[in-house]
């Protein structure tokens, strides 16, 4: 219990990113568990279940991938497709503030469900052809990094695998899931492992060889694959206990958990700077009954500006 308290006492077992290592096999990973944060983000938009499930996986993936990076800013995962779901966006700050939204066409969603063979709600069926982009933005005075890969495979996990293969980064395994719990609340989770470069040395009292590393990676991938979606989402199964259940034979060691929160970066100041930069014709075009209403796509916050409020911006 003491070890568990050291890992989770500061954060609790939900809405966290839990880093871990598998010793001595050079495998590092992260487990993301989203509970109230995922439910708040998905419920405020009232998405159809297939869309909410896909966005939930995207939220978990974004929080998970960001944990592998050293940055001070915002990490974004964005998918653009030609299917019923046209846009998926999720981003997370280096402080753990997570948000996301999906744009979809309800009529296309119904047509797909009626005509599709196999699973009409698979990620690639919902998104169709397109791309997925991974972006790190650390502010206006820094260079933005972006990686883009074509949408491939049947799932968001397979798309992520394709990205790491094409970018020649570390060998990576990812497992994603999202769904409603018994209480009807949305939950989402991601489990990710990466193979670190072989450096040799000793571990667990013996010399570690390249063959040990190779065997360790194969074993870690097999153990990760054995994890059931129900385990990833199980509110009664603490994240550190899940890691031990999966990887105890490989000497799993978890680090302190990092908190993830539902938080949007929109603000009145940003909206007002945008409005102040518009021409008089643009302002007139945007008015409805004499008022401009600006709604944040992420958090659905509405901000209304009448003539007096607009005049105060100039």
If you had to describe this structure to a student in words, what would you say it looks like?
The protein is of the alpha+beta class and 314 residues long. It folds into two domains: 2-262, Hsp33 domain (3-Layer(bab) Sandwich), CATH 3.55.30.10; 268-311, Alpha-Beta Complex (CBS domain Like), CATH 3.90.1280.10. The protein has twelve helices and 16 strands. The strands form four sheets. Strands 1, 2, 8, 9, 12 and 13 form a six-stranded antiparallel sheet that branches. A hairpin with a 2-residue loop joins strand 10 (202-203) and strand 11. The longest helix has 18 residues, at 49-66.
Key descriptive features of the protein:
six-stranded mixed sheet; about 35% helix; Hsp33 domain; about 325 residues; 16 strands; CBS domain Like; 12 helices; about 30% strand; alpha+beta; 2 domains
